[in-house]
What we know:
single chain; Metallo-beta-lactamase, Chain A; Rossmann fold; 2 domains; 24 strands
Amino acid sequence: xxxxxxxxxxxxxxxxxxxxxxxxxxxxxxxxxxxxxxxxxxxxxxxxxxxxxxxxxxxxxxxxxxxxxxxxxxxxxxxxxxxxxxxxxxxxxxxxxxxxxxxxxxxxxxxxxxxxxxxxxxxxxxxxxxxxxxxxxxxxxxxxxxxxxxxxxxxxxxxxxxxxxxxxxxxxxxxxxxxxxxxxxxxxxxxxxxxxxxxxxxxxxxxxxxxxxxxxxxxxxxxxxxxxxxxxxxxxxxxxxxxxxxxxxxxxxxxxxxxxxxxxxxxxxxxxxxxxxxxxxxxxxxxxxxxxxxxxxxxxxxxxxxxxxxxxxxxxxxxxxxxxxxxxxxxxxxxxxxxxxxxxxxxxxxxxxxxxxxxxxxxxxxxxxxxxxxxxxxxxxxxxxxxxxxxxxxxxxxxxxxxxxxxxxxxxxxxxxxxxxxxxxxxxxxxxxxxxxxxxxxxxxxxxxxxxxxxxxxxxxxxxxxxxxxxxxxxxxxxxxxxxxxxxxx
Length: 490
């Protein structure tokens, strides 16, 4: 028999950690961080101390209490872990590059192979480099043995070098090499490119995992193909972020509404806040800006992502940047704020600005301030409000929020503080967004078309809604709690 255990993502949005195992093998589908739990227990920076971080995460339930899967250099407290449950993980397969699906990989044993696509790896590396993460949080594809590092410092020897984790690069619609069982990655539509669902064939049962999924994005055909590829499987692990929500807005709807609102503000500045990983939305906004005869201005982080994906020859459809400019942030104390030798410019930002120096691609706040009706700013962080303070937008200028739902890792911020800045700058606001997740009707349609014998809801706060709605259709729904196992094919 094959056993399915939800180590995370049961009764919550995010933190997906799915353990599948038989006697001969064990794999993980995703190993994400529960951002909600981390926020609940975080106190200042104490959570991040290297000598306590693994202990604390186990203690408060951010990580599952299982033997045999964690790094041995982070002062693991065996007393916190059940001695009855021990596994040797053959590989951890990541569905996409959102932190709540891969962020806890850093705690897995150093020899555990991590399976990702080429574009997904580039997205994750971009996020690590540009987000300011440090220490253990960065160690997804590389790591330092922290115990050896301190022992070497004690003896005065050279520092320990970073080492690459074992890596499996998979391709869409091709079985994952190096996996102990047959696993087929199938692209699906989500608010980040390189997102995959999976069809898994074991000796006892066939299993499908949707990952995060939708039908209303630019690549909705991916999701339709996924449904066709997994029809008739035994078990469906289905995300249910919006099982209580029937609203739908497509990417085309977003574009039309942004264009409409922009045209109402012909004499004013337009600023849009977007997730830096949402390539489809960034492309939509660039097109909307050009339709309104405005020059799109990208934050350096957004430009860095597009450049990174271009350099790895990603298959992801990238925005065209012929007419776009890159915003030049003031970060230094001298040279009117633009001295690139300042330590306040992080390495990756400095490289971007140096590479564009001497071109007409860089644009400064004072240039935008003079001709506000010509520009359409596309930024990725609420800290863009500090940049707007430099630009001094005309009162009544428009601030559009076009980001993912509040559980997304980009949204860990107190909105009340943002509103204070918006009011201080006398901006008008709109929220124009298409969700990264399928609504209730699409989720039910997906399940009915696939026709599984058993449905297991995950990545949802309302798993019982699946049971209420689907068991009317004679579809069995298994509500699982964190750490609970279900055996299939006995």
